[in-house]
Structures are given as structure tokens and as C-alpha cells.
Queue: 2 jobs
Job 1
Amino acid sequence: MNVLVEIPDGLGLALADSPDALRRRVALDLALYYYGEHLVSLGKAVELSGMTRGEFEAVLAERKIERNYSAEDLEADLKWAKQSS
């Protein structure tokens, strides 16, 4: 799905030096916000950001955004790992 958002020229230039850089910044900022608010999963946030998972996780660490990883997630991962070995 494509969504068109109009950003005033002055604001756009203050945020990035080109339309492509602005698009990447807005996509990353939205992904970080939605992930931080528990609105999307890590995978969906990575997809929205246009980054690799490793790159996105590095930004999470840099901005001190906690991972959304519950005890239930850990239990499910451990169960999966035991079945896979």
C-alpha cells in the first residue's frame, strides 16, 4: 500500500537533504514509533523501515528502545529451539 504524505519544503529540508533520504527517515521513524508502542512486531517494523533486521536492531539499541520480548516469547522460542535440535 502506498500512502502519500505532503511535507512542507522547509520542514523536509530541515529533516533530510533529499526526497529519498526524507522517505527513508520517515519510514524508519514510523517503524520505531509503531514498534516502541507495541503496535507492530519486530518483523513488520523491519519491513516498514526498509532496513535489514540487524540494522534495525542497531538503531533500537542506539535510541535505547526496549525490545518487545515477553516471557511468553522466550518460552515459545525455547520450545521451538528444543524441537529443532
Note: The first helix runs from residue 9 to 15.
Job 2
Amino acid sequence: MESSERFNTNTLLYKILDITYLDEAGKIKEELKHNISIPELKIQNSKIIGKPEDKFETLLFLPPNPQRIAEGGLRTKGLFKFSYKLVDNQWHVCDLEGNPLIPAPKEIQEKINEYINGLKDSDKQVITQLPLITVITVVYNGAKHLEETIKSVLNQTYPNVEYIIIDGGSTDGTLDIIKKYEDKIDYWVSEPDEGIYDAMNKGIVVALGDFYTFLGSDDLLVNNWIKEIFRFLLSSSVANKAYIYGNIIFQVGGKEIPYRYRLVKKNELLKEFVIPHSGSIISAKLFRSGGLYEKKYKIIGDHAWVVKVHDLIHLVYIDFFQCKMKLGGTSNNPKTVKKILDELKIMEKEHSIRINLSFKLKKYLALIASYLGFYEKLQVVWWLMRTIRR
């Protein structure tokens, strides 16, 4: 086992605030939370200074909300994570564009070097940066599976992972699970939202990573997926605006169904509807250049966003399983087919395109149907009939 396997996602915590900012419970005082300014880290009034043309501002904390139920995580204690770049044999904290700002503290320098020393010699020679990757989980009343999801993130062996959870105001014990991992989750908040894409946007605006990964509250990241991506980035000339995706393992009926899907050309994004989103790793620069998800979509907002930023995307496929996804959620439930088709019509009209559901979606559903019971197969047949008649 490589020594880097001992590393976890909280290895590179950086305490950027002194004790005067903290209350007796060790959390940032409420009156100071939105007034943090650290010029050398490009932080002004608790906002990260980005480019003037960015579509949104990156925040250290979500704005005050009278409906907020709770908020917490390592950030509320002054502990943050950043991307790092090697300059003159020293690791430097980077801004949102990857520009080095200041040398990292000594203990972080040592931890980064220890991690790199544990990698293969072929990797060591090309490592000049250690990007922060932000995992965002949106949840509402997901207590049944959330703890497994959290563990799948925390067990990643890549050391520079930021984990953000946005809860929609759960009442089923979800908050108890989140609080159980209070010292491992970077930032979490519980408050009502306007749907899944509104919640995902909240996660994006507080994300400090170079890349974002969206993980459903009942999905699991495959072991070492992020580390595999890191190695790939080191050995490939991937553009800053990359959308990196792999394969999915569907979990249904107590069985696991491996599913591989690869687009041959980027233009297929305007024709197909089944590119894996959960677990994919997407450049933050794509969002800052192309904007956030549109809240008018309640089910297909991720695909609508891909269509919107299509011209900017550098699409990258890796033949590696990225996550395990339980079927039965809103976007893959046969009962929601009418809503999906209605939203597709809106998107097609807005972008003057035509999405092809008849072939790839039938193949995908046929695969799943082979593992289902009689009643579930009837639902899939209904799906197919609706898509053919569309």
C-alpha cells in the first residue's frame, strides 16, 4: 500500500483566522462572519475576489437567511482549504484562477510533500500543483442513505477535498447525521430552498475548489475516484474548462449494474440525454464563465446547463467507474417521465435543438429492466412508449 493511502480529505486544513474572531464555542463570531478581509488571500468582506466577468461571487458563507435552521462545519471554525502550486520549491496558496498568492504554512508544505513522496515515481516528476476538488451533496430527508454517502467522500485518499452539504430543511434525522460528522464536513447549511438546482447553486457559490463534483445524497463515490482523476490531470493536457466523466454503477433490486456510456463527439451533448452527472468532475471555471443552474428546471437542470455552456466545454471521458447510484430518485423514476419530457420541450425551444431519446435511452432502460421485477418492468415499458411517441 502506498503511503499516500493513509491520507484523508481533511489533511490540508488551513486556519486563516486568529482566536479574536472566535467565540467561546470556537466558532467565528456571527457579527464578524461576513466581514472577513485578508488581502493576501484575496478575501474582502468574506468574498473571494475573482474576475470582473465572473457570473457570480464566491462567498465564504451563505448570506443570512431568516428561515435558516442550522449552519456549521470546519469553515465556521476558521478552517479552510485551498488549491496549491509549487513555486521555487515551495507550495503556495492559489487564488480562484490558479495564481500563487503566498507560501503555505510549514505544516501544510510538509503534508503535501509527504503525500507526493508516497506516490509512484512517474507521478512525482510531474506534480507542480495540488488542486482543491469540491464535492457538493444536496439532500432533503435523506437520513436513510446519507451517512454512507458522507463516508464515501471522507474515505477518498486524495488529500485536498472540500465537502459541502446543502440541506433543504430536513425533518427525518438528516441533521443528526450531518452533525455527527461536523469535524469532517467543510461547510453545511440547512434551510428551505426552491428545488435541487437552487440548492446546488448555493453549494457552488461557497465552493473554493478548482473542480466540482456533485454527489446525490444516496450515491457513493467509488474508492480512489478523485485520486484517479488527479493522476489523469497530471498526465493529460486537459483544458481549464474540462467536464470529466466516467462510468456509473447502478444499484437496483439489491444488484449492481455496471453502465458505460461515452460520447464520441462534443456535439452529441446537444443530441443525447444520458451523460453521467453525479460523480463527474467539472471545472469551476465553466460555472464562473457560463453561470449557475437555472432554477426553472426541477429535474433536467444539469443537462440544460450542459447545453447552455456547450461551446465552452472540454469534454473528457475516463474509462473508470466514478460512483454508485441508487435508482429511484426524481430524475430516474419512471413516474416522473411526463415532467422530464415537459422540461425537455422548454429546453429544446430555448436552444433550438432536438434531444434524441429514442435509441440511447431505450438501451439504458432495457439494461435496467433486465434486473427489475414485473411491476417495475411495466413502468420501464411505459417510459419507452412515452419516449417513442414524443
Note: Residues 386-390 have pLDDT under 50 and may be disordered.
